[in-house]
Amino acid sequence: MLLVLRLGVVAAAVVAALFPLPPALVERAYSTTAYPAWQRVATSLSDRVPFALLDVLIVLVGIRALVLLVRVVRPGSRPWLRTALGSLVRLASLAAILYLAFLVSWGLNYRRAPLVSRLDHDAARVTPEAASALAKRIVAGANRLHRAAHEEEAASWAAVEARLAPSFAVVQQQVRQGAPARPARAKRSVLTYYFERAGVDGMTDPYFLEVLVNRQLLSFERPAVLAHEWAHLAGFADEAEANFVGWLVCLQGPPSAQYSAHLAILWDLLGALPPEARQRAMRALDPGPRADLEAVAARVARAAPALRKVSWRVYDRYLKANRVEAGVASYGAALQLLLGTRMARGWEPAPRPQGRGGAEDATT
Fold first, then answer.
1. pLDDT tens, 103-121?
2. Fewer CB under 10 Å: which end of the chain, C or N?
């Protein structure tokens, strides 16, 4: 009976992986209804624990997997083939349970309708001229905000969380998210040591819906990183959408958050602009913001190159396995979202005009 149950779980995971639900159905039945309710409960509970619950899960799963692998190699007095097959089935069912739990808890958000289906977005707006104009605007903003941002620097993650929470709620309504997500506190994890060596800024735990951060982040990096992870918590699994929503949260926040977003956007822009436009942007940048960008570059450079390369390759495959076809290149797609979305006023994204279709039209 147990064997049949385990094989059934494996079969269910295979079906879930190979035959995804339609995006419109995921959007309607999961991402804007069931998931927000679950997220508020899960994050509320995980926030009460001072350590990362994901660490506990990793240890428990690791021990269980190791025991099963040992049984494959050293079956003891029982027949080797029977014991090995039984252990392999248990391993497969464990992986299947973890995958199904991932999908139900957060992972189905990878299959939701794209954010552009709810915004006034036009790919024709994404031009080199628009990118240069954005660079000019971002550079001017970074110069203007630098002093106030450094005077307002938060001494703790808790202060950053408190300052970002109001704009996080507002932006979720602007992108027609439905019930707002609950912000999570920033936690450290045993994975922090991996983050530091691999150049990873943070991650959202897909099981307990908690936020884990790199402890080496500079003070002016913290708002943009936290807002990005909160966007994941709000159900924006795609990296480009999480970047875009996170930038909006910061741009509509206090000066320290605005400055953090300006530097994050500029970091991406400098890599996307032609050499001449890039040099023009750097010449217009004041010494303060330029020094901050150099400090970020120095922090990233401390990561182990080989580990960083392997880490990003693995993450690229993970994204593509979840049907994010651009892989890690989807980070650059955030700039396309920013350039192609009309802003109603300031940094408020305009909703999709009536008659141009919605989430269902765009995905069916």
1. 999 999 999 999 999 999 9
2. N
Average pLDDT for 341-362: 76
Rounded Cα distance, 85 and 305, in Å: 39
Q: What is the mean pLDDT of residues 156-171?
A: 94
Domain ranges of the chain: 2-111, 115-363
pTM: 0.88
Q: For the residues 83-96, what does the mean pLDDT come to?
A: 88
Q: What's the 3-state SS for the chain?
A: CHHHHHHHHHHHHHHHHHCCCCHHHHHHHHHHHHHHHHHHHHHHHHCCCCCCHHHHHHHHHHHHHHHHHHHHHCCCCCCHHHHHHHHHHHHHHHHHHHHHHHHHHCHHHHHCCCHHHHECECHHHCCHHHHHHHHHHHHHHHHHHHHHHHHCCCCCHHHHHHHHHHHHHHHHHHCCCCCCCCCCCEECCCCHHHHHHHCCCEEECCCCCCEEECCCCCCCCHHHHHHHHHHHHCCCCCHHHHHHHHHHHHHCCCHHHHHHHHHHHHHHHHHHCCHHHHHHHHHHCCHHHHHHHHHHHHHHHCCCHHHHHHHHHHHHHHHHHCCCCCHHHHHCHHHHHHHHECEEECCEECECCCCCCCHHHHHC
Give the tens place of pLDDT for each residue, 175-234: 986 789 999 999 989 888 888 888 889 999 999 999 999 988 999 999 999 999 999 999
Who has greater pLDDT, 90 or 326?
90
